Amino acid sequence: MLILSRKIGEGIVLDEKVTVRVIEISKGVVKLGFDAPHDMLILREELEQEVKKANTMASVKVDENTLKTLSLKIQKK
């Protein structure tokens, strides 16, 4: 892990595509700004973990009887 110190207004460039800039430091909270291409996904770490968890749960194999039961319930509505 690389650890750098930055002051307000200073930034770090990642792969010549993304600049991370310190916007504000207040009461132990650091606000960061990201200048990145519009097609680049930027997520908070906890959201990325939730997405991975949801994807893993969605990929779990479901038995055929459960799918048939669910299908019948959907058709009744």
Describe this structure in words.
This protein is of the alpha+beta class. It has two domains: 1-38, no CATH class; 43-77. The chain is built from two helices and three strands. Strands 1-2-3 form a three-stranded antiparallel β-sheet, with no helix packed on it. β2 (18-26) and β3 form a beta hairpin. It is elongated. The termini are far apart. The model has no long low-confidence stretch (mean pLDDT 91).
Any descriptors?
77 residues; alpha+beta
Topology:
Elements: E1 11-14, E2 18-26, E3 29-35, H1 45-58, H2 64-76
- The helical percent reads 25-40%
Class per helix and strand makeup: alpha+beta
List the helices and strands in order. Answer: EEEHH
Distance between the termini: 53 Å
Shape from CA axes? elongated
Detail the poorly predicted runs: none
User: How many strands appear in the DSSP assignment?
Assistant: 3
Query: Number of helix segments?
Result: 2
Query: Hey, roughly how much beta strand do the residues contain?
Result: 25-35%
As a whole number of angstroms, the C-alpha radius of gyration is 22 Å
**How many domains in all?**
2
Strand order of the largest sheet: 1-2-3
Q: What's the mean pLDDT score?
A: 91
What does the main sheet amount to? 3 strands, antiparallel
